[in-house]
Amino acid sequence: MNLPNGTLKLSRATYCAIADGVITRWEDPAITRDNNNIPVRTGPLTFVRRSDASGETLYLSNHLQTVCTGRFNFPAPYKAAPYPADLLWKRGAGATSEARGQTDTLADTVDWPDSFLAVQGGDDVVVRTIRNQQGTLGYVGAAYTNLSIDRRSGLPAARLQNQSNLTAIALNQALPQYYAASAQATGSALSNSVLDTPFVDAPFVREVALNSYSNPTGSSDYPLVSVIYGLFYEHYNQQLEVDQCGCFGLWALQNPYPDPVFNFGSNPNPNPIAQNRTYGTLSGPLKTEVLAILAEIKLSSQFALRPVPRPPIQLASTSLQPYPLLGQSSKCRDLR
What's the 3-state SS for the chain? Predict the structure, then answer.
């Protein structure tokens, strides 16, 4: 966001109302209440959204569809207009954006309010638009915030209320709390997710998916997280290609890679590399499962049958042990 003091706290009800076009001014009582009853700014609130297909739009809209699910217990003055009795998200979810002013949205499409400012061209354009106009708010990947080591000129991210705090408030066990985006908060959210590896297309296409992170439930989780995927074939024509997939997994995920001879000129530790860019680090159980799946990649001539399907794994409670992918560091050393 682009605000005078560079800080902003938003409760779940407030950011649902902003994304739905209900709250359109910065001096709105809902925003003021979230920020210690101090107005953060006066004037119109301009929401910058993507008009081109965007993974960030997909993740944000999935989150809104998950958490903006019904009646919020609004205190005064929120019981009166313009605040609705509920904030049920009816604008759809997906990577594609429109602003048709309708609620019968197309599949994989978000029908944003007409008043939102539409831009296309990636996160760089969103950041540049927000930086050049005070009173704007939008959504980008974490690497484009000022929390990232690569983006010192990035923009500050809002602190958001999470599900754990909402649950505690409902039980009269806590006051509102707002959580900053950080590598630790994102990693915690992903660690509480479910790893699923269903076959999604015949004959051999398998999706390795993290589920249950659209509304993280950990006490310190940042509520809005997403994941980045890598794409691999499940079989290749040459043994060299098979070995390269497994060795790349070792190099990218081991902490650090165990054989300094095979290190592409460096011996990286993936966790600080991710943290410096505000990415959550992958948990040990998740790395273990990814390496095990990479180890199932085979030669085309050996790939007559599907691998055995894997059941969903609750990462927070799993006892998976480190997986000895390939088992021969010399094989990876030779590939260098």
Answer: CCCCCCCCEECHHHHHHHHCCCCCECCCHHHHHHCCCCCCCCCECEEEEECCCCHHHHHHHHHHHHHCCCCCCCCCCCCCCCCCCCCCCCCCCCCEEECCCCCCCCCCEEECCCCCEEECCCHHHHHHHHHCCCCEEECCCHHHECCCCCCCCCECCCEECCHHHHHHHHCCCCCCCCECCCHHHHHHHHHCCEEEECEEECCCEECCEEECCCCCCCCCCCCCCCCCCCCCCCEECCHHHHHHHHHHHHHHHCCCCCCCCCCCCCCCCHHHHHHCCCCCCCCHHHHHHHHHHHCCCEEHHHCCCCCCCEEEEEHHHCCCCCCCCCCCHHHHHHHC
